[in-house]
């Protein structure tokens, strides 16, 4: 069952989302060659707790950190640790926050120093595919119109979308119904209505879409070793269309 949110609930989610956005901004400011992902995790946790909010990922199914840090061929769910970022790396950071009983969830991929042109393109296309998805979140559209918007844009740009992991409803739980795949035919699934809140998160590989999970049971990597990028926002559909609740542009 999809739980539609009241205006008050969306306000609470906006407050959680604002912290998520600030953490991602702080991650971008902190990323530089030589920093470890564990240091980024500590910075994120401290900032989240400074708002008396909880890092949503810490302890989730025993995940040991406050953020996910996925470098280069790592797709999602990378565990922060002693690995140091190097010039030319890319890193996807996923942040979840719970505040006053409501969740915000977002991710972005950042560059470490100079990266190759094709790597920039992968990041741009992934980010833009999220924008295409958000444009598809309108009353009367169906759920799979969002999925199709991502796949269509990504594949037109000769990259591939990960099939095994999906976006999701969000609110009082971090993962609510419905699941939102990043691929599929348009015009299927439930009709989108005001009050729906979704975390949309395209994961895009430079090579094939296949992935595998490392022995740590968390880190998802591309099967062919190619680079992968990930962007995510929490979005609510209001009477004026989709509102990004994890936008860095909120005042
Ligand atoms: Mg998510």
Descriptive notes:
The protein is of the alpha+beta class. The protein has a single domain (7-244), classed as Creatinase/methionine aminopeptidase superfamily (Creatine Amidinohydrolase, Alpha-Beta Complex). It contains four helices and 15 strands. It has helices at residues 7-30, 37-50, 117-135, 143-156, and strands at 54-55, 67-71, 74-76, 90-99, 102-111, 160-161, 167-169, 176-180, 197-200, 203-205, 211-213, 220-222, 228-230, 233-238, 241-244. It has a five-stranded antiparallel beta sheet. Strands 1, 2, 4 and 5 form a four-stranded antiparallel beta sheet that branches. The chain has a three-stranded antiparallel beta sheet with strand order 3-12-11, with no helix packed on it. A hairpin with a 6-residue loop joins strand 11 and strand 12 (220-222). The longest helix has 24 residues, at 7-30. It is globular. Residues 105, 168, 199, 201, 232 line the site of magnesium ion (MG). Magnesium ion is lined by residues 105, 168, 199, 201, 232.
Summarize the structure.
By secondary structure, the protein is of the alpha+beta class.
- Which stretches are poorly predicted, pLDDT < 50 over at least 5 residues? none
CATH superfamily: Creatinase/methionine aminopeptidase superfamily
Q: How would you sum up the major sheet?
A: 5 strands, antiparallel
Broad structural category:
alpha+beta
Helix and strand run? HHEEEEEHHEEEEEEEEEE
Terminal CA distance reads 33 Å
Order of strands side by side in the largest beta sheet?
8-7-9-14-15
CATH 2nd-level architecture: Alpha-Beta Complex
What is the residue-averaged pLDDT?
Answer: 97
CATH class: Alpha Beta
Ligand types: magnesium ion
């Amino acid at each position: 069952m999809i739980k539609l949110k009241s205006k008050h609930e969306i306000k609470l989610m906006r407050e959680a989302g604002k912290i998520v956005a600030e953490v991602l901004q702080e991650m971008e400011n902190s990323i530089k060659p030589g920093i470890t992902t564990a240091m980024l995790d500590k910075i994120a946790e401290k900032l989240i707790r400074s708002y008396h909010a909880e890092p949503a990922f810490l302890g989730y199914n025993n995940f040991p950190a406050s953020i996910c840090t996925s470098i280069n061929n790592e797709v999602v769910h990378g565990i922060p640790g002693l690995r140091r970022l190097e010039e030319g790396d890319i890193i996807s950071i996923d942040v979840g926050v719970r505040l006053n009983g409501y969740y915000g969830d977002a991710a972005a991929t950042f560059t470490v120093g100079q990266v190759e042109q094709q790597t920039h393109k992968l990041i741009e296309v992934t980010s833009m595919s999220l924008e295409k998805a958000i444009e598809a979140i309108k009353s009367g559209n169906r759920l799979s119109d969002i999925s199709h918007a991502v796949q269509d844009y990504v594949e037109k740009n000769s990259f591939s979308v990960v099939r095994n992991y999906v976006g999701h409803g969000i609110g009082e739980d971090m993962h609510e119904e419905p699941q939102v795949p990043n691929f599929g035919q348009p015009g299927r699934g439930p009709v989108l209505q005001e009050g729906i809140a979704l975390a949309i998160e395209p994961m895009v590989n430079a090579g094939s879409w296949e992935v595998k999970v490392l022995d740590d049971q968390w880190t998802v990597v591309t099967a062919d070793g190619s680079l992968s990028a990930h962007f995510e926002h929490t979005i609510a559909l209001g009477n004026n269309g989709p509102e990004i609740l994890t936008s860095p542009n909120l005042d």
